[in-house]
Amino acid sequence: MPTELLSIQPGELKFPFELKKQISSSLRLVNSTDNYVAFKVKTTSPKKYCVRPNTGIVQPHSSAEVTVTMQAQREAPPDMQCKDKFLVQSVIAPSAKEVSQEMFNKEEGRDVHEAKLKVLYVSPPQPPSPITESNEEEGNSPKASPVVDNGERHHLLADPVNQTAKTESEWKFKLNETKAALNALTEERNQAVQQSRSFQQELQAYKSGSGAGGLTDVQKAQGFSFLFVILVGLLGMLVGYLLGG
């Protein structure tokens, strides 16, 4: 927006509006004349904005930067429409000295130039999508295996290490159970053999005492063999049950 003394760039103040965050926008004041030009920046909402510097002098054929900072806002305006305005006043300065309020007093016949600026709220720039970046970086990642559960397809990452460890743990548990059962059966067999021997001794004593009324050796051997067959059969059934489970 050109004036006779200063060219103001841009012609509008744009703020990428975000709640609870300070936002800044810059102005560039260009002096294309051969004179020193003093400027002053005013706003309709002085408590809402901070202007640095709000006054100054632009040397001939040079420029100056002005930063306007909007304070953090707790709520957005309706339809993101802002009614705030800025006014940039400029006047020829006698030298590069400090700016005084009297320099912009129109009542004293000074030629004060003014330029009005609107305030616009724009959407803040969107950050890159993290989903897109993660997809590009997952070129060698493990694929998800489809699993059908109640008619719905889910994707779960396969974990063969955990499955192998689980299977090995189950086999060790079953093996320990089998060993414990074998030890118990061995103990029972030893007890049965011991009882059989004790029974044989009693029979021998009885035979010696009663003569012809005792059992024969063949009958005793048959009784022991039958008991051993029963124990071996029970042992085989238990081992088959454990290995089959």
Describe the structure.
The protein has 245 residues and is α+β, with helices and mostly antiparallel strands. It is 36% helix and 30% strand. A 5-stranded mixed beta sheet has the order 2-9-8-4-6, with no helix packed on it. The chain has a 4-stranded antiparallel beta sheet with strand order 1-3-7-5, with no helix packed on it. Strand 10 and strand 11 form a beta hairpin. Helix 2 runs antiparallel to helix 3. The longest helix is centred in the last third of the chain and has 51 residues. The protein starts with 5 loop residues before the first strand and ends with a helix. About 5% of the residues have low confidence. InterPro entries: Ig-like_fold, MSP_dom, PapD-like_sf, VAP.
Which term fits the overall shape?
A: rod-shaped
Count helical runs: 3
Extended strand count: 11
Distance between the termini: 88 Å
Query: What is the makeup of the main sheet?
Result: 5 strands, mixed
What helical percentage do the residues reach? 25-40%
Order of helices and strands: EEEEEEEEEHEEHH
- Cα Rg: 51 Å
Kindly estimate the percentage of residues that lie in beta strands according to DSSP.
Answer: 25-35%
Roughly what is the average pLDDT, rounded to an integer?
Answer: 79
Q: In terms of per-residue confidence, which ranges show pLDDT below 50 for 5 or more consecutive residues?
A: 144-148, 151-158
The neighbouring-strand order within the major sheet is 2-9-8-4-6
